[in-house]
């Protein structure tokens, strides 16, 4: 019982942290897409023009930003529902409920690791283009680098936003691993308890049958002795 309470509290704490980390992904990624005029910075490439020193952009697909945003919203909703569910839980969860928790944990883990890799690699590709002109990617933030789109694109905060999104993505992956392990431990514990209960029931039935057999044997003994006397 103590172990079950500790695991339950750990799950609640993990989902609370996951809500915060999902916001660390959702908010900066959404701001980045808005500040770049609806374009996605991740995996965006280009080349520097010698005549005016501007960066001729080849925008990547918006899906590279849409998937991490979807993951952040998915984690936020699932964690919010799980916090509400766990805080109101008064009875031990069923085997089916625990199995669903494990499946959901696997999906959370898969989405978070894919998003973390996507954000990290995508930002590296963008920074590779920036460091062709600037000493570091951070230095390029806030510079007038994209010709023709200056009125629609704000590059002042992209480094902080992508750094925060990476922190949220990798943090979400780490917490999702912990939540998945806890869900699996609870499932294994529930399975072991069910097996123990079944074994105890079978053993009890075996003892009852043995006792009944002994009573039946004692009841027939006087009859046999009486027949022998006759």
From TrEMBL:
Residue ranges of the TM segments: 12-31, 59-84, 96-126, 167-188
Membrane topology label: Multi-pass membrane protein
Pfam families per record: Claudin_TMEM179-179B
Keyword list, A-Z: Membrane, Transmembrane, Transmembrane helix
InterPro entries linked: TMEM179, TMEM179-179B
Keyword Cytoplasm: no
Subcellular location per the Swiss-Prot or TrEMBL entry: Membrane
Family: Belongs to the TMEM179 family.
Name of the protein this chain belongs to: Transmembrane protein 179
Species this protein is from: Bactrocera dorsalis
